[in-house]
Specification:
There is one protein chain. This protein has no helices and 13 strands. By secondary structure, the protein is mainly beta.
Length: 171
């Protein structure tokens, strides 16, 4: 008498479609599975790291195939994603990765602003990023109710026509 033991499937590292991913955007993961039991079939479960999990889509032939799954994260942070694959004989394998979920910054331009011809106007705005990433600052402005030919100038910039754009102006 001899006994044939099941061998667990082997997995490639799980690869996210992107990381970082914006809060609320869909991110997908993919990996491949191989099993020496060429008649084995497989199921996959993805633990998304945010208290949710879902079944992975398994496409396979002769014990080998691909696994895909997708999810959207409602909050920013770093999520530890684990994909667990089981064969129909009880063999189990897991692989993990991390996905960075980047939150939307909040921005306020202050204002409304007004001024007197020939005098300066101080612009003051705020920008806060949940991950404390550096944020580039740009100002876009429109001169309303001014005489034709009115021109505005931001510090350190050449004279701009109304509705100009200054990528280097301080907040």
């Amino acid at each position: 008498t001899f006994t044939v033991s099941n061998v667990a499937p082997t997995l490639t590292p799980v690869v996210p479609s992107e990381s970082p991913v914006a809060t609320g955007s869909t991110v997908s993961v993919g990996l491949t599975v191989a099993d020496v039991g060429t008649n084995d079939t497989h199921t996959a479960t993805v633990n998304w790291g945010d208290t949710t999990s879902s079944a992975g889509l398994v496409t396979e032939t002769a014990g080998a195939g691909a696994i895909r799954a997708a999810d959207a994260y409602p909050a920013h942070g770093t999520e530890h994603v684990t994909v667990t694959v089981a064969d129909d004989n009880g063999g189990v394998a897991s692989t993990s990765t991390s996905i960075v979920v980047n939150g939307q910054p909040s921005v306020g331009a202050g204002g409304p602003y007004s001024g007197v011809e020939g005098a300066g106007v101080t612009l003051s705005g705020t920008a806060v990023d949940p991950e404390a990433d550096a944020l580039p600052v740009t100002w876009t402005y429109t001169v309303a109710g001014a005489d034709a030919g009115t021109r505005c100038r931001l510090p350190g910039e050449p004279t701009l026509p109304p509705a100009g754009h200054s990528p280097d102006a301080p907040p």
